Amino acid sequence: MSVRELVILGTASQVPTRHRNHNGYLLRWDGEGILFDPGEGTQRQMLRAGVAAHDLNRICVTHFHGDHSLGLAGVIQRINLDRVPHEITAHYPRSGQHFFDRLRYATAYRETVGITESPVSEDGLLATTPAYTLETHKLSHPVESYGYRLTEPDGRRMLPDRLAAHGIKGPDVGRIQREGTVDGVSLDEVSEVRRGQRFAFVMDTRLCAGVEALAEGCDLLAIESTFLDEDEQLAVDHGHLTAGQAARVAQEAGVRHLVLTHFSQRYSEPEEFERQARAAGYEGELTVAHDLLRVPVPKRR
């Protein structure tokens, strides 16, 4: 059975707290798993969430601040210890190659699995698979940072009333899907476009064009909201977003489900993030993330 969900492994910014681990997010997309920003403690959080090294197909790092990458060493060593049999690809800013190398080989271990390194240096397409395309856009942070966006190819939805009106039934339904026409009837006459689902992951950044491009039309958007609105100047100074800023981006982009995460340890009431996001005008489904939460990708429209 296919599953599409975001498993939240950690939600703290800069330092972990008693209740929040460093960052870590696993996107389950049918039979694949994409691990985003494995901060310190991610390997243990994976265990608590029921996520195995075998579940991973890609690792995507937005930037090389420790709360987004210190868990790489443990995760990579666990991949090797468990002898994961399939290819795993790692995406990360090319400017941080020396950090990736240090983390990949932080200590001695037996390397049994080849990890394909696919560093990022500009906006664009990173991968195309039958299930999705993966692209990246540059963000605005004191160190080079990139967000990631996954898009499912559009499909077709067959319309029973139109099929019946044209007398198409049985094996001919499959035939028109494969060949495009049956007895002079085109696929467009008996079906409509089924929009592919979209997911985006936006971490440490100020407001910028990259944030808008990543969020546009997403079914599920995981986005940092490190600060509350009253601390907007701190957000600007340190390269982050507030709850209200993230919510306005999501509302303007038509995001269906907004996940706020990456919270500063200075705040003890997560409900305030939701209140400010609503006050900023966001009307869709809203989740203020906490560790080990599972957030399903919304069903197709």
Your description of this structure?
By secondary structure, the protein is an alpha/beta fold. It contains 11 helices and 18 strands. The longest helix is centred in the last third of the chain and has 11 residues, at 243-253. α3 crosses α4 (97-104) and α10 (243-253) packs across α11 (271-279). Helix content is 28%, strand content 26%. The protein has helices at 42-49, 66-69, 72-81, 97-104, 160-165, 171-179, 187-190, 209-215, 232-238, 243-253, 271-279; strands at 4-10, 24-29, 32-36, 58-60, 88-91, 115-117, 124-128, 133-138, 146-151, 155-158, 181-182, 185-186, 191-194, 198-202, 220-224, 257-261, 285-288, 294-296. The protein starts with a strand and ends in a 5-residue tail after the last strand.
Q: How would the global form be characterised?
A: globular
Report low-confidence residues grouped into runs of 5 or more. none
Strand content: 25-35%
Classify the helix fraction into a percent range.
25-40%
Strand and helix layout:
Elements: E1 4-10, E2 24-29, E3 32-36, H1 42-49, E4 58-60, H2 66-69, H3 72-81, E5 88-91, H4 97-104, E6 115-117, E7 124-128, E8 133-138, E9 146-151, E10 155-158, H5 160-165, H6 171-179, E11 181-182, E12 185-186, H7 187-190, E13 191-194, E14 198-202, H8 209-215, E15 220-224, H9 232-238, H10 243-253, E16 257-261, H11 271-279, E17 285-288, E18 294-296
Parallel strand pairs: 3-4, 4-5, 5-6, 14-15, 15-16, 16-17
Antiparallel strand pairs: 1-2, 1-18, 2-3, 7-8, 8-9, 9-14, 10-13, 11-12
Helix pairs in contact: 3-4, 10-11
